[in-house]
Amino acid sequence: MKKEERIKPIVMRFVVEQGNFQLAGEASSRIKSRLLQLGFSGSLIRRIAIATYEAEMNLVIHSYGGTIEAQIIPEIVTILASDTGPGIPDLEKAMQEGFSTAPEEIREMGFGAGMGLPNMRNCSTEFEIVSEIGKGTNITMVIS
Amino acid sequence: MNSYFHSVTLDKELCRGCTNCIKRCPTEAIRVREGKAKIIDVRCIDCGECIRICPHHAKLALTDTLESIKKFKYPVALPAPSLYGQFGSEVTINQIITGLLELGFYKVEEVAYGAELVSRAVEDFLQHNYFPKPAISAACPAVLRLIQVKFPELINHIIPIKAPMETAAALAREEMQKEGYPSKEVGIFFISPCAAKVTAVKNPLGTSTSAVDGVIGISELFGPLSKIIKKRQEVPNLRKSTAAGVSWAVTGGESRLLRDIRYLAVDGIVDVSRVFEEVVMGRLIGVEFIEGLACVGGCVGGPLTVENPFMAKALINSYAKAKQVKLPELPPHPDWQDLLWENKIKPLDVLRLDDDMKVAMQKMEAMESLQQALPGLDCGSCGAPTCRALAEDIVQKQADEVDCVFKLREKVTELAEMMVELSSKMPPSMGEKDKQKR
């Protein structure tokens, strides 16, 4: 076990701006190409890419902006998504498939189907979400 | 990895060592070494981008010559649908088929007809099998290679049905056999718009062997064929294909034949790559079928074609408009099982830095710090397409830091500064007088 601990993770960090749809997907795409070079399997890359992309989109659509961080060690990737607000009022509801608070104009763009958080949870091996109104949301996804 | 045959190759004499091709290659498979471009075989997907971009025409596709059909007593021509778009609107498809026969082919089996069989099979397959969506067309061999190299996560989305070329070739072989021609004396030649098909014949994907014996580029045959076509006006009706199969020559042609399916058709290797990125991220919700073609315009844009791709596309589209689109009937599945792939295709794993993931991580860390120190101009003077690629090459011991002209200049400056500094140093045995003498 101790040997495992000694591995220094590769850390990639991205700032995600509120409302910047043009750059949305950049973090997941860059993380994906690194994982391919490291030799991660296709199916694992796929789950990580989907989870990261959903997290990224949530930051763009719902938050005031935040960061995506990927910590990579062999066969395990941890994705941390954190933002500075506004926070999720009802987490239980937010985790339900199909529930969305996305405004009409976002839905017209093809987003806001209410599958973001459930997809992220489904792709993760471990999933944790902490949210506080006025402070922000922190999501930790361990995918292996 | 066993050595891999590629159609795309380099004419060393013509190569000037410029950086056009390295910058254009979608899989970063080219480096300039010792003043000449060098293709990294395992990474090359034969898309032909370098053939198109090279200003010195130093990139070639290895193909067979028209002369080579003489090796067989009964050569069969398999014209790609894109061949029909090469001779302008005055020339009919029947004239082209007749022309091929007059060039010395014993029989013509239209790939357009093979395409119609494939369309039917694909439709049937998608209706009766659970398959991950979006399903990806297996028609373009360069796109299949792209998936193997860059998108291993999409391999199980590829529809495991043979491409029209293989289908037509198998059909031709079967027909010739039935008519009693000895198999050894029958040679099947695909008339190709692209280099990737040459590679696909030599290294088949999804099947162990190809039914095709040789591949002749459209450009090779264009001269003699257009001469013959002009001489003859009245020709018999030899066509077996309809506008349906012919439309496969252009982007969207294959997709439009699939009824009740939400499709996306994309061309140009860079854009195909972009679409696949989005698929991986789960972005393309609702798309059931993707037709991705490496060349802009579709096969009419292939690097071995002669006619302007957009002219050819207009012509092919006019066929599709004029004629009723009708697909041939197929016996119900599993009778068309011989259209299915025999083997699964596998990821190529050529982008990974090391087989050991821990070592790969160390290499990536080393790459990151090397990249930080490089100028980030992606100028290509070092022979690698980007600074990151150079960093990777250095880590893999394929290049040196001073291959970068900016790094080299830094080192020279350091050296010069050191020389100046040293020149002012005096050995203790020399006095003030000696110093003044200098």
- Helical proportion of chain B? 25-40%
Distance between the termini of chain A: 17 Å
Query: Major β-sheet of chain A, in short?
Result: 5 strands, antiparallel
Q: Which homologous superfamily in CATH is the superfamily of chain A?
A: Histidine kinase-like ATPase, C-terminal domain
State Rg of chain B.
27 Å
Strand content of chain B: 5-15%
H-E string of chain A: HEHHEEHHHEE
- Which outline of chain B best applies? elongated
CATH T-level fold name of the largest domain in chain B: Rossmann fold
Domains counted in the coordinates of chain B: how many? 3
Largest interface: A-B, 30 and 26 residues
Give the beta-strand count of chain A.
5
CATH fold naming of chain A: Heat Shock Protein 90
Polypeptide structure, described:
- The complex is a heterodimer of chains A (144) and B (438).
- Chain A is α+β, with helices and mostly antiparallel strands.
- Chain A has one domain (10-143): Histidine kinase-like ATPase, C-terminal domain (Heat Shock Protein 90, 2-Layer Sandwich), CATH 3.30.565.10.
- Helices cover 39% and strands 26% of the residues of chain A.
- Chain A is built from 6 helices and 5 strands.
- In chain A, helix 2 runs antiparallel to helix 3 (42-62) and helix 3 packs antiparallel against helix 6 (116-123).
- The mean pLDDT of chain A is 84.
- Chain B is 39% helix and 10% strand.
- Chain B contains 16 helices and 11 strands.
- Chain B has helices at 20-24, 49-53, 93-102, 111-128, 141-150, 164-178, 196-202, 218-231, 243-246, 253-256, 269-280, 309-322, 357-373, 387-395, 405-423, 432-437; strands at 8-10, 30-33, 36-39, 59-61, 74-79, 107-108, 135-136, 186-192, 214-217, 263-267, 289-293.
- The model of chain B has no long low-confidence stretch (mean pLDDT 89).
- Classes of the chains: A alpha+beta (144), B alpha/beta (438).
- At the A-B interface, helix 2 and helix 3 of A face helix 11 and helix 13 of B.
